[in-house]
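DM from R.C. (forwarded with permission)

"hey, sorry to bug you on a friday — could you get me a structure for this? deadline for the figure draft is monday and I only need the backbone to look sensible"
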Amino acid sequence: MQKDDPLFGRIEFRRNFGFIGAGFWQGRINFPPVGKSVGIYLSAGRSGIDESHRDFYRELEQRYDQMIPSIFSVLDDLPGSDHFIDRFGKPEWKDFDLDSIFIPKLTHSEPEWTLSYRYLPGDQIYHVYLEGWKPTHGDFDD
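My reply, with the result:
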């Protein structure tokens, strides 16, 4: 199932198998703070997303540049970061390319959500997990 959303454009529903009634909407959106199109994943059932998803996204656009130092700092807490640094050298922010944004169902004031980055020298995906507007931890997909 597909819908045209006034903010997110064409989005498509995907069901999470194993969870009755669970699912998410996915698409691509131009994210002005990085000047390119990124994947967007919105946790919501078949009935679709609501204004809270749009409000959250708009606020992220406004806050993103101020969040970069705290997003980048979670790299230091990753297990195996010494091996990572030995392999690729000390990472720099310019080496991380925003790949996607996951916005959850917004049922409380400090939602848990994710930003995913492609680390260009190693071509890994780096996930930053946030609670509210504060990063809590990160991990890599090798």
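R.C.: lifesaver. The longest helix spans residues 51-73.
me: no worries. The radius of gyration is 16 Å.
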